[in-house]
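Bumping my old thread because nobody answered last time. Still need a sequence for this structure:
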């Protein structure tokens, strides 16, 4: 049966996928948007909201990875977190390109309107559109830089994790070598004890034979002294 922590990780992963798909759909809407400026601004606002929610859920997933008891689970969730960060970075890049494509489409539309004698109001609207797109591009660039820094930190954490695993592996190997050495020493000690036990038995037997010989000699001498005629 799945634990509560596993359920939370699974739910968080599903929400991340949901936001990712929603962002992709909005980016496609921006790419296909012919204008006006208000429509583009509304789409960009929705993308920002979804990106913020996605970023928070990825951070939650990273925190869940740190709280895992098993090393394998922690590394698996960290790998998934890294993958989702890269996907978010890809979405932001696609968002920026979609805005540029939309800007080009709006510029082309405005050129057509100018050729047909559009009023000064259209000119002001075009200027506002360009300024908004520049601001949006700057915002996306800042987000990309932030993501790059986050990815660098994650890579550093992954390197530290690999170093910890390598140290643990060396410790286990050293312990195993010491265990083998102790086993060899115990085996040698057992052989020495068996050898000493056999030697002790031999010594007791020799002492018994010597004592028997001594008693036989004494009896023989006594017999000759007391019963010389026998």
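Sorry it took so long. Here it is:
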């Amino acid at each position: 049966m799945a634990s509560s922590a596993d359920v939370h990780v699974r739910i968080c992963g599903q929400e991340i996928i949901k936001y990712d798909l929603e962002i992709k759909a909005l980016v496609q809407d921006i790419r296909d948007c012919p204008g006006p400026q208000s429509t583009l601004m509304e789409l960009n606002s929705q993308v920002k909201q979804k990106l913020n929610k996605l970023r928070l859920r990825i951070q939650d997933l990273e925190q869940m990875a740190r709280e895992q008891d098993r090393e394998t689970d922690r590394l698996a969730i960290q790998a998934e977190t890294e993958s989702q960060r890269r996907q978010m970075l890809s979405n932001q890049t696609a968002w920026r390109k979609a805005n540029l494509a939309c800007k080009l489409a709006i510029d082309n539309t405005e050129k057509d309107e100018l050729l047909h004698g559009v009023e000064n109001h259209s000119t002001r609207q075009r200027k506002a559109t360009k300024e908004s797109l520049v601001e949006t591009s700057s915002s996306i660039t800042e987000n990309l830089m932030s993501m790059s820094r986050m990815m660098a930190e994650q890579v550093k954490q992954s390197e530290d994790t690999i170093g910890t695993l390598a140290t643990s592996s060396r410790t286990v190997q050293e312990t195993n070598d010491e265990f083998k050495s102790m086993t060899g020493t115990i085996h040698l000690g057992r052989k020495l004890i068996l050898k000493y036990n056999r030697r002790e038995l031999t010594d007791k037997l020799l002492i018994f034979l010597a004592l028997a010989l001594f008693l036989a000699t004494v009896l023989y001498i006594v017999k000759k002294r007391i019963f010389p005629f026998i």
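Residues 20 and 87 are 8 Å apart (CA to CA). Let me know if any region looks off to you.
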